[in-house]
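Team,

Forwarding the record for the chain on the shared tracking sheet. I've put the sequence and predicted structure together so nobody has to dig through attachments.
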Amino acid sequence: MVIVIPFCIKDCKSALKNIQWAKELEGSYPFRVLLSYDSDVPQPQVDSITKEAERTFADVVHLRYQEWMGNPRWPNPQNYAFQTVAWQIIDHIKEPFLFWEPDAIPIRKNWANDLWRDYKGCGKPFMGHIVHGVTEFNSMHLNGVAVYPPDLHVYSTSMMIPPEGMAWDVAGADGCVQNARHSNLVMNVWEMDSGYKPVSSGGVVPTFPNQKAVDALVDFEASLFHRNKDLTLIDRLRERVSIPAKKKGRSKRKR
């Protein structure tokens, strides 16, 4: 499995912090990493992320592509970035890959190994968190933070060429969901309410100002928590490392 770390100029600090946290968890990983970024990302930021990735993973390769010059509104740049990665995998790397977005936080040790182990045994070409009821009451799609096959274009044309205004993971429902295995290893909490409870709409992007939020939202048997854009979950998990085991909270919530 190749681990793809995509980032744009706005994501550099998040990507770096996430890699540093991954190293703190385990030290090193036996996986190749593909750093994927556009020509707008300054070289010093690329160098910093590369240095940390090389300290953490077995091998690091790069995909630097031309900056998106079309409609800048979401999800157009994001679709372009994913499609660029997908074709690199299809044409050159030819291995399954984990699309590890900068707002997907490793929760515990063995997070990556467990994802790879379960993917190999799941019997499906896609594995991740299947989301219900986004576009319609009974709709389903595989959230973008997932493990993909090296030939994903065979399963879904719409994932590679999404309709205007539709994110690639939602568009991919046409051929991806029936070929995907839901995994509790990938958490997907899109929004939360004021009591730190997951909601599908009307809330805010999950943030972790205290350990109460961690206990309410995080399943410690999962590998990745998506989404936490301010990366405060890393700060709270770092605090738990320094707390004696008998004082640590442990959530049993399942997603």
